[in-house]
Design goal:
Layout: H1 15-28, E1 42-43, E2 58-59, H2 80-94, H3 100-115, H4 128-141, H5 144-163, H6 187-197, H7 203-213, H8 217-229, H9 236-239, E3 247-251, E4 257-263, E5 272-275, H10 281-294, H11 296-307, E6 326-328, H12 333-336, H13 340-349, E7 354-357, E8 360-364, H14 365-374, E9 382-384, E10 389-390, E11 397-400, E12 410-416, H15 419-428, H16 437-440, H17 455-468, H18 473-480, H19 496-506, E13 511-512, E14 515-516, H20 526-530, E15 538-539, E16 544-545, E17 566-569, H21 573-598, H22 604-626, E18 635-636, H23 646-656, H24 662-671
Antiparallel strand pairs: 1-2, 3-4, 4-5, 6-8, 7-8, 9-10, 11-12, 13-14, 15-16, 16-17, 17-18
Helix pairs in contact: 1-2, 2-3, 3-4, 3-5, 4-5, 7-8, 8-10, 8-15, 21-22, 23-24
Amino acid sequence: MSNVLQFTPKATNEARHNVLEFIDLCRNQLTIFGKVDWEETWDVTREINQRGRSGRIALAWTNFDTSKSNTKAAQMADPFVDFARAYIRYQAGMKPTTSVNLRLSALRALERALSENGDVPDITRSNLAVFNRAATLIKDKFKSATAYRVAGQLAMVAKFINDNSMVSPQFEWVNNLKRDNDRVRIGRRFEEERSKRLPQSGAMDALAKAFRLATDPRDTIIAATGALLTTAPDRINELFRLPVDCEVQIENPDGTKAYGIRWWPSKGAEPYVKWIVPTMVDVAKEAIAKLTETTEHARSVARWYEVRPQSMWLPRNCEYLRSQQTSLAVDFAPALGMTRSGVNQWLNAQQVETQTFRGKLHVRFEDVEAVILKLLPKNFPVLDQETGLTYSEALFVVQKNCFHPKRSTIPSLVETVTTQHINGGLGARTKHGISSIFQRLGLKADDGSDIRVTTHQFRHWLNTIAQRGGLSQLDIAKWSGRKDMRQNQTYDHVAGDELLAMVRDIEQVSSCGRFASAVDKPPLSREEFLHVSFPTAHTTEFGFCVHDYSMMPCQKHRDCINCTEHVCVKGDVQKTHRIKMTLETVLQEVQKAEKAIADGIAGADRWFQHHTLTAVRLRDLVQMLDDPDVPIGSTIQLSISTEYSPIRNAIDDRKLLDGQDTEILDEIRALMGPKR
C-alpha cells in the first residue's frame, strides 16, 4: 500500500530550501506510483483507474511546446522539472485525480512562463505576472472547456507553493479563465455546435433497428448499450459501473409499478436509484436482459479466477491439458480462441518456450498458464475501486478481444467494456477503416451518409428533450446525476425558433401592448397593470415574471414559485387551477421524499426541504387567491425573508449618507418596483 507523508515547510527556511526538501521527500520517501525511474517517463496505468477507458497512461516530462510532438520532444528544464515530478507524485496521494495529464499541462505552461526571456525556470521565482502568462499560454493552446480545467490545476499549484512557503513574496492567484457560456441560439455557430452535440438525422431510427437485428455478441452489446443510453441521460462510464443485478422494481401506493436502475454517478453526486420513465421501461429491461445473457460467460470465467487465482480457466473439452506436462500447441486453440497458426504466433509473441517434436510444436501447460494469469486485468478481481465492483458481478464484462477488429477473442481471459469499444461500434472510427454496427447491418443516415454517433450525444439529446418538455432545472439536474443545476445549460440545445414556438404553445393569448395578457378577459386591465410599477414583465404558466433581464439572467432557473420576482393575478381561472394542481403534485413529492429519508436514500433530505418550502408557498398563494376579501385583479407577490436585493440595499444605504441628493435615488427605486 502506498504511504502518504505530509510535507511540512519550516518557516525559518528560505523558499528554495523548502522546495529542495519537498523534492527529496517525494523522490526518496513516497511510494505513490510504486518504484519509478525518476528521470524517465512514468507508467502509472495501474495506479490511475480511468473508468471506461483503456490503454497506457504515461507521464512524460516534456515541455509545453513539444508535449504533443513525436519527433522533437524536449524535457522541461532544471530545476523546475524535479519540482514538477515531486508535485505530481505528492498530489497523487493528497488530491488524487484521473485527469493527471491536465495537472501536468498546467506545470508545463508554468515552466514555459518561467523560462521566457532566457530565464532559468525556478518555481521560487513565481509571481502574479508569471501565473497570468501561464494562463494566457493555456488559453491559446486549448479549447475553452479544457483551458478552464487546466487553469484550475494551475490555481492549485499557486495555492500549494504559497501555503508551503516555496515562494517569496507570497501572492494569491485565482483562475481567470472562464467557461464558454455563450448560449446564442441562432446563426451558423449555434447550428454547427448543435450538430456536434446531438445525434445526426436518422441515427435514432437506425439504432432502434440495430437493437432488433443484432445477433453477433459484439453488436448486441453495442446496440443494447445505445438503447440504455436512450432511457436516461447517463454518462457512459457510469454504465460500466453497473452490477448485473442493477434493476429495481417497486409498487407505488396507487398500485402502479416503478422500474429503476441502481446508479453510482461519476462526478460527485450521491448513489441513488435512477427511475426510468414508463415509456422506456420495456427498452431498458430488454437491453439489460440482452447484456446479461451476452456477458454471462465472461462473468463465469471471472468467478473461476476469483476462486482459483493460480489456475487457468479451460473449456470442458480442454480440461485434460492440466494433467499433461507437455501438449501439442494446437490443443490450446479452444482455450485461446485461435487457429493452429494463430496459437503458434501467440506463443511466439508471448515468448513462451516451445519444443518441436516430429514436426509438431509442443508446449508445457504451466508456461501457458503463467502467461494467461499474467494477462488478467490490472487490479483483478476488482473492476471499480470506488464501488468495489468485481468482474464477476459486472454487467459490462466480456471475453478479451471481443471488440478487436482483427484479433481472436480469448475465452480464457476477460476485460471490461470501454468507451472506445462502444464509440467505435457506433461509428466514431469509420474514418480509420473500422466498421460500425450500422455499416455491418446496412443502415444509413437520412442523407445516405455513414452514421456516426458518440455515447455522450445521447445525454445531450435527452437533456434537450427535457428542456423542450419544460422539466424543471432541478429535476433535469437530478435526472442527469449533476450536483450543480448551472451545468444544465451546456446540454441545452433548444433553438431560438423552438423556444418561440414553446412560448406560443403555452396558451393562446391576446396581445396587450408590450405584454401578453393573462387570459382572454383579464381581471386586471392594461391601464391598471401599467400603473403597478412593474418596469418589465413576461407571462409564465402561473402569472407574470417581473425580473429585469437587462440587469442579470434569471437566478432561479424557472423555479417561479420560489421566486420573489413572480407575480400572480387574482381572478385568472386557468392559472389558479394550474397552481392548485401543482400544489397536489408537490405534496405527493413531499410524501415520496419522506419515504426516501426513511429508506435511507442519500440526498433525500435535500429534496424534502425543497418540496416542503415549495408546498408552503403554494398553500399561501392558494389561500390568497381563494380569499373573498382579496379583490379580483389584485397582484399577489410572495416574499422570502432570507432573500434580498443587493441593488435595492445599495440604494437604501446610499440614501442614508449625509449630503446625498435623494431625488435620483427615489426615481431608481420607483423603477425597480415595490419593495418586497
